[in-house]
Structure formats: structure tokens, C-alpha cells
Write a structure and sequence with these properties.
The protein is α+β, with helices and mostly antiparallel strands. It contains 16 helices and 19 strands. The strands form six sheets. Strands 7, 8, 9, 10, 11, 12 and 13 form a seven-stranded mixed beta sheet that branches. It has a three-stranded antiparallel beta sheet with strand order 4-15-18. A three-stranded mixed beta sheet has the order 5-14-6, covered by helices on one side. The chain is elongated and about 100 Å long. The two termini are 54 Å apart.
């Protein structure tokens, strides 16, 4: 009689393993679901998504990365798409929806080959080859921009900013905002640090009331009695930046003091007042007109400064304090003993101004670093938040265009050209790669197709026209959403930095290869090993 093999238990009980071809297909299907979530947000006629989180906070957005972050995705393979959207947002700032769409479409076109049993390694090799060809083609097609003429460069930057804003909620005001964004970025110094552009939101007013301030601006902080007596404008002022609490501190809380009569108790109280007054006197002697502190400034100090024609603001948010320090010079001090001109900031004009329902402290003419603040106005909170996200995309695009001065035509033009190039190339090679590269060529058409679908056009008709134009050698023809037709998008000034497209293709290709190379998922049970539920107990039909 045969001896039974003992069963070997390798993984913890309750571990879920699935492997092989069905696993790969299931991962591809999960990615399709993600793509469907952001598909309709692409392009000038894209729709927005309203996402409500656990706490009931509603967010309205059509920025791919924002939507992906807010969707609480648990599927491990689908998370890859969230990561590429985040990386595109961090690296380039725009094209987040495109990158997810491309990755999803690559997988969709490759899925039939997986089902037929083509080995994933062969597919990955073909995807890599196709991406390399696309990379070379974009670099060859991209138009270098002459930066020697500042006016021409400015016009180019405005076109790129306007293209980025085209698909956003504020596309009606894209002329107004693209000028503002370009002004903001050009105000910065060589390295174009993003944190030197502050964005403040004030509810109320129209979008056109938004303004750009070349300097630092922040909301008036919490104030005490005596604040209104302080001057609200200064010319050529000196700024003390502190991290000190200027309030009466009960020093007796920090130490045990034993007193046996009232006179000695009075001495303790006097000492506490004296400590505060000594601090205030030193700040006054330093010659500072404006005192900003990260910690609270109490009512005694507020009144003291008001009597000496000095302005003070306590509890200033750290990022604002840091931006003021970078812009106006000086240093954030934690003691008042060494306050001299070398640690005080300087600016040519300080004023407190009413903007909508808020009052803002504004520092202009900062001598040290270049910084600026955008103050956005608009109806509702969600609208302002979406405006901020849209402007962030446009700012990133302008920064990238200054650093990489080559552009390609948007509106699906570059994708159609790459698609045509891959199709032509696929006919020159034999073997399975021919079909696979052809599939990737077809996948690239998703961008113009989706632009048409979102605008309600006949996508098949427009893609046929585009294929004809590209076959005739018109490389820059793309979808013209305004006229429901095709147009030379380079002449129509729908421009995008080539770095967006390179990054998007690279990220989408990497995600595709990553998902294709996974053939098994092993999911450990939660700690404490949940007991498997018995049918009929919690898993049956609900009681009527």
C-alpha cells in the first residue's frame, strides 16, 4: 500500500495566494477600473470628480494625481498607477491623467496576448523597445525655443501655461492666470524654488480679483489690545524674526518659591514683569520696526510696541516666517540678546491691507531673495482649492519649460505621430514583437480618442482624419476641441514641454512592465488571524 505524503504547511493559515495567468489578468482588470475613474477628466472638455472623504469633506477636482490620492485604493497592483500619477505630479506637475490613461491602455491592448499565452517577458521586451523608439522620436521632433529674446520666451511660457490651464476648472480665465503664473515664476531667482511662491486663498470676490504680490504676504495673525494703535505702513523697515514667547510667563510655575510675606511675593511678580520688559526693551533698542514671532505676543507686549510706533505679529505660521526670512534676510532668533542689524531683515515697504474679508500683512521690495505670493479670490472653498491645484500645475509647467526649452504640440498630436512611427516600425520586424509593438501603437491613440470622447465628438471619424494627416507627414496635427475638427496644434499654440511627454511615457511603460512581471500575489492574514466566517453566520443573506 502506498504511503500518504504528509501535507506541508508553509504559509500561515489564512494566507491568500493566487498565481499564474489568471492572477495577471486580474491585475490588469484592476488597473482598468482605476483608469475608468479618471478617464473622463482628460482635456479641455473633461469632467470633474466630486470625492467625499470619511470626515465628509468634499473635494472637486479634475487633477489626476489629486483624485488618485483621494481614492483609497487597496488593490496592490492598482496602487502602481497611483504611484506613477504621484511621480508625474512631483516631477513635472501636469499630465497626471495622461500617464494613468496610457498605462491602462498599454495593459488593455496587451491583455489579449497574455490570454493567448505569450510570455510576459517577451511582452516586456517589446514595451521597452517601443518606449525607447518613442523617446528618440520625441527628442527628434521637439522644437527648441530660442531663449535669447525675453519677449519671445515670455510668449512661449504663457502659451505653455495656457495649455496646462485649458483642461482646468478656470479655463475661462486662462489668459489672466497664465500671465500671472509666468510673472510669478519669472520673479524667482535662477533655481526657481517652488516654496518661494506662496498661495493664499480668500473666499469672496471674483476670480479676476486675484492678485500677484512681489514679496511675502500672510493673513493678519491673532491680535491683542493695542494692536490697532500700531502703525500699518512703513517705508524701509527693519524686521525682527523671533521664536520667543513675549507674554507674561508665571516663572513661579517653573520652580517652587517659598515666601512668608507679601513683600517677597511682590518681588517675584516684579521679577516676572522685569524679565518681559527687559526682552521688549532689547527688541526696541535693536531698531526693528516690525516684530514677527512664531510664538504668541501677549497684550503687554502689543501695547508696549504700539506706544513706540512698532508693529508686531505673533503666532506667524512657520512657512510664512521662513519665506520672510529668505526674502528679507536676517535670521530667526531664539534670544533677544544679540539683536543687531546683521540678524534683522529689511524691506522697502511694509503695509497691512484689507483683501476681501481678511487683512493681510504684505512685505514688498525684499532685498535678499526673490519671492512672490498669489492671493486667490473666488466663490466657494472647494473652487479656491481647485484653482490652487490648477495653478500649481501651470507653475510647474512654466518652471519645466524654462529649464528644458523644447516643446511639442499637445491635443493628441505627438501621440498620433508616435503611434504612426511605431506602426511603421512594427512592419519592419518579424516575430511576436511585430504584433506587440503594433498593439502599443494602437494604445497611444487613447489620448486623442479620449479627448474626442470627453468633448462628445465622433472619435472614430476624427482619428481617421488624424491618421490620414500623419501618414501624409503632418506631424503636428491633433484634435481641435473648439471646432470639432483636427488642426495643426503647433500653429494653434497648443504647446506642451516635451519633458511631460517623455516622463509620462517612461512612467506608464515602467508601470506596465512592473504589472506584467508579477505572476503571484501572496497576502498574509491580518495579525491575530481572523477566524474564517462560517456560511450562514454573517455571510448568508440578511434577515428580512
Amino acid at each position: 500500500m502506498m504511503k500518504m505524503q504528509p501535507q506541508i504547511v508553509l504559509l500561515k493559515e489564512g494566507t491568500d495566494t493566487s498565481q499564474g495567468k489568471p492572477q495577471l489578468i486580474s491585475n490588469i482588470n484592476a488597473c482598468q477600473m482605476i483608469v475608468d475613474a479618471v478617464r473622463t477628466t482628460l482635456g479641455p472638455r473633461g469632467m470633474d470628480k466630486l470625492i467625499v472623504d470619511v470626515n465628509g469633506k468634499a473635494t472637486i477636482s479634475n487633477d489626476g494625481a489629486t483624485i488618485m490620492k483621494l481614492l483609497d485604493i487597496v488593490h496592490p497592483a492598482a496602487k502602481t498607477l497611483v504611484e506613477i500619477a504621484k511621480s508625474q505630479d512631483a516631477e513635472v506637475g501636469d499630465g497626471t491623467t495622461s500617464v494613468v490613461l496610457l498605462a491602462g491602455e498599454f495593459l488593455k491592448q496587451i491583455k489579449p496576448f497574455v490570454e493567448e499565452g505569450v510570455h510576459p517577458r517577451i511582452i516586456i521586451k517589446a514595451v521597452r523597445r517601443a518606449l525607447q523608439l518613442c523617446h528618440e522620436k520625441i527628442n527628434q521632433l521637439a522644437v527648441k525655443i530660442d531663449n535669447s529674446n525675453p519677449e519671445e520666451q515670455r510668449a512661449l511660457l504663457e502659451k505653455c501655461a495656457a495649455t496646462a490651464l485649458n483642461s482646468k476648472l478656470i479655463h475661462q480665465q486662462k489668459e489672466f492666470f497664465s500671465k500671472m503664473v509666468v510673472d510669478a515664476v519669472l520673479l524667482l531667482d535662477e533655481l526657481l524654488p517652488l516654496n518661494m511662491i506662496g498661495i493664499k486663498k480668500v473666499s469672496g470676490g471674483a476670480l479676476e480679483d486675484s492678485q500677484l504680490i512681489s514679496g511675502v504676504a500672510f493673513k493678519k495673525t491673532f491680535s491683542y489690545a493695542g494692536f490697532e494703535m500700531q502703525p500699518k505702513t512703513y517705508k524701509n523697515c527693519k524686521i525682527a524674526l523671533l521664536n520667543i514667547e513675549l507674554e507674561l510667563k508665571a516663572e513661579r510655575d517653573n520652580a517652587e518659591v517659598r515666601v512668608d510675606n507679601v513683600i517677597e511675593y511682590q518681588k517675584v511678580v516684579d521679577a516676572e514683569w522685569q524679565i518681559l520688559y527687559d526682552k521688549l526693551a532689547k527688541i526696541h533698542e535693536s531698531g526693528a520696526n516690525v516684530v514677527l514671532s512664531k510664538l504668541p505676543i501677549g497684550d503687554v507686549a502689543t501695547q508696549y510696541f504700539a506706544d513706540r510706533d512698532m508693529f508686531c505679529a505673533g503666532r506667524v505660521p512657520e512657512e510664512d516666517l521662513r519665506r520672510t526670512m529668505k526674502a528679507c534676510g536676517g535670521a530667526v532668533m531664539t534670544t533677544v540678546n544679540d539683536l543687531n542689524d546683521s540678524v534683522l531683515g529689511n524691506c522697502t515697504l511694509f503695509e497691512e491691507r484689507q483683501i476681501g474679508g481678511e487683512r493681510f500683512n504684505i512685505f514688498q521690495g525684499c532685498i535678499n531673495a526673490k519671492t512672490c505670493t498669489l492671493i486667490l479670490r473666488g466663490g466657494s472653498e472647494q473652487f479656491l482649492e481647485e484653482t490652487e491645484r490648477s495653478l500649481h500645475d501651470a507653475i510647474m509647467i512654466v518652471r519645466r519649460t524654462i529649464k528644458n526649452d523644447s516643446v511639442v504640440a499637445g491635443g493628441g498630436a505627438i501621440e498620433m505621430e508616435l503611434s504612426k512611427m511605431l506602426r511603421d516600425h512594427s512592419r519592419t520586424i518579424a516575430g511576436k514583437e511585430q504584433l506587440l509593438i503594433g498593439a502599443i501603437a494602437k494604445a497611444l491613440e487613447i489620448i486623442p480618442r479620449q479627448l474626442c470622447d470627453n468633448a462628445g465628438f465622433d472619435a472614430t471619424n476624427i482619428l481617421n482624419k488624424l491618421r490620414q494627416k500623419h501618414a501624409q507627414g503632418n506631424a503636428w496635427y491633433g484634435v481641435d476641441v473648439g471646432k470639432e475638427h483636427i488642426a495643426d496644434n503647433f500653429e494653434a499654440c497648443v504647446w506642451e514641454p516635451s519633458v511631460i511627454k517623455l516622463n509620462a511615457l517612461q512612467a506608464a511603460g515602467e508601470a506596465t512592465c512592473l504589472i506584467l512581471s508579477v505572476d503571484e500575489t501572496i497576502k498574509s492574514p491580518k495579525a491575530g488571524g481572523e477566524a474564517p466566517q462560517m456560511p450562514g453566520r454573517g455571510m448568508g443573506r440578511p434577515m428580512m
